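This section describes the prediction task in plain terms. A model, or a person checking by hand, is given the sequence of a single protein chain and must write out its three-dimensional structure as a string of tokens. No templates, partner chains or ligands are provided. The sample shown here is typical of the held-out split.
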Amino acid sequence: MRDHYDIVYLNILEERHGSTHRARQLAAQLARFWHTLYVESNLNGSGLAQPDMDVVSVSRGGSPAGLMRSAGEFFQTCCSVDYDILFLQKPWLVTLPCVLAARARGARVVIDYDDVDSLWQTTPFKRHFAFAGELAMPRLADLVTTHNEWLKGDLTHRGFRVSLVEQGVDTRAFDPIRYDKDREKERLNLTGYQVFCFLGSFTAGSARDLKPILEAYREVERARRDVHLLIVGGGGPLEDHFRDEIKRLGIERLTITGRMPQRDVPRHLAAADFGLIYMRDDDANRARVSFKVLEYLAMGLPVVGQVVGATAEMFGRYLLVSGAGAALSRAMLRAAGSSAGDRPRPSEARDYIVGRYDWNRVGEGLRATLEGLSAR
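The expected answer:
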């Protein structure tokens, strides 16, 4: 490792999901412009190395004790090198010692606030712990970044200096022109089916609203023999729960791919005819920007389902919008029975994504943001 870095980026999440993907992509964009040290607690080493970015893995921390060990290793790393900016992937309270170490050496502190994580936690302790970090950590930051105007407005109202760094997608990898749909369907034994896909893992965040999709698909499967549900992903602590739910519902035509590297996701989406999304209307979902929708639209897929809040404001006009329950199954049936001319034009949606939400474009905005911070 170098003795000095322009930026040290800390990612302390345990599960591979959207926030971790955002962290990796932001770190990769930072390394386009500055010497960057990326430190992650769930590193698998795939596809991260690039010029001007060193990568370090610390201990995994599934238990509270393990999490504290991870936090201790983050702190040791922050104390062992010199740097100008400390970039935190979340306002986690366990990274407070790292912030204090950065302050002591005169480094700037940036925190990416990409969800209201306290609303996603599954136990009272985790909810209160996350909420404490959301209250305290941004007060110690020179800058808070976030990915949508809803969160930006809330954080600005609370008195923080906030910059918009939008969610992104690699539109060169997620490009339908690179794939032959018929060939990808044949590879997955899906020839002859209209394929609905759900992209995500079986985690509290990614699969939070999967149950309404499964229930709606059950009705679609009963009504049509030519449909198949493809879950692109899998794995995670809730996998057994959802496999039991699938069995209880009696769903037959369904494939779960299992976890895969991000580079393999586009070719699986290429085998699909429709992407599925469902977001219940609550504060947690209103504050998030769905990676699923970004990647579906980048791959030219018509998207069926319900979105709310920031995701609806940004992408709602490109979706075949439905409600829950019977409304969702009816929308899926309409999609399966419609001609291409009755659907939103995928090319228009993809052009919009390429023009505004490509990661390289987001990276240029991030560069300008941090150059402004350094000039203070």
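For orientation: The radius of gyration is 21 Å.
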